[in-house]
Amino acid sequence: MNTITKNKPFFDQKNYNFNLPKILECSTPSEERGIGRDEVKLMISNKYTNEIHHKKFKEIDAFLEEGDVLIVNTSGTMNAALSVELPNSKKGRLHLSTQIASDKHLVEIREVENNETKRFHDLEAGEQLQLEHGGKVKLIEPYYENKQDKSHIQLWVVEFDISQDLNSYLEKYGSHIKYFGVDKKYPTEYYQTCFVTEKGSTEMPSAGRAFTPNLITKLIAKGIQFAPILLHTGISSLEANEKPYPEYFSVSQASADVINNAKKNGNRIIAVGTTAIRAIESSLNEENKVIANEGLTDLFVTPERGLKVIDSMITGFHEPKASHLLMMEALVNREHLELCYQSAIKKEYKWHEFGDVHFIATANLALAPKTIKSYNANHHKNYVQKLVHK
């Protein structure tokens, strides 16, 4: 365990940019690196005291207590990337995002260069792009109004002209979305978590990837509760200054009851990933109680809005300028994020969907007295005061 003190701002104050060493970008699944999913690194940080622990993910049970609720996303990952020919005759990738109508989808078009993809903006409404394996995609209109701003992501509303069902086409010809190492393919199961009940995400809800059946069994035996939700993720390449797009979600009454009861009893509500936050915070009534709900959400969680239900989070490490960092600042202050990310780089944590994991906790329960059975705000305040005065 260590407590880090701040020196100078780590994030660029405008857009959360920071210097991420190339060596920490991880595009290789843990299975290909010779370790189990739950053997990736785990950082546990106390958002009140700035204490940081470094463990393996399989040791997370020591930092969870009976009554804690883990909100997990049950959406599985689709083959959502298709090869297309760009107007400049260069190779491109179509990244499927969200279905917004029965015959319309949001997509991002990217150019392939040096085995990586980059944003591509030289497109016009009405154009048709040829798909590599037959069929076309027609660009109906840009989703964002600022089409001419080439620093901003451009999503397109499109219609597919193919001879078969889109899901069947994707299953046969599509691949998983990748931003670099485009030519490297891995088995489909590498892109699924063990919580999956149905496919629909275009990028993996990767915060849950490190959980294994054995670890889940161990947590249940300890009294940890699971509240499944569904949110079909779209593309994850948004930056901090870019508006989100709609995503389909569903929250059941059973999960709403688990969360509301735990909240009432003073237990921690822990989101496994940003998708869990977006689904739950989109399912609140006027009293900020979770209700059963489903549909498309365009909720944009910011520090100004804050979080109404979630108080802790399990997540991956996010790329420079990622919009997810804005959501995380709704949970903890920027200083805490900067300390954690500085520590992660120093300790050589891995980034991206196959990388390591960060647990932002409301209390450092591994150091708390053994008599604690659930998180209690007043108890935590007293505990922190004792810790500070030691």
Characterization of the model:
It contains seven helices and 19 strands. With 390 residues, it is of the alpha+beta class. The protein has two domains: 278 residues, QueA-like; 93 residues. The strands form three sheets. A ten-stranded mixed β-sheet has the order 1-3-2-19-18-16-4-14-15-17. Strands 6-7-8-12-11-10 form a six-stranded antiparallel beta barrel. Strands 5-13 form a two-stranded parallel sheet. A hairpin with a 5-residue loop joins strand 6 and strand 7. The longest helix is centred in the last third of the chain and has 13 residues.
- Our count of helices gives 7
CATH architecture classification of the largest domain:
3-Layer(aba) Sandwich
Domain unit count: 2
Which residues sit in consecutive blocks of at least 5 with pLDDT less than 50?
A: 367-390
Distance between the termini: 16 Å
Q: How many beta-strand elements?
A: 19
Mean model confidence by pLDDT: 86
Structural class: alpha+beta
What name is given to the CATH topology of the largest domain?
QueA-like
Largest β-sheet summary:
10 strands, mixed
Chain oligomer state? single chain
Numbering strands along the chain, what is their spatial order in the largest sheet? 1-3-2-19-18-16-4-14-15-17
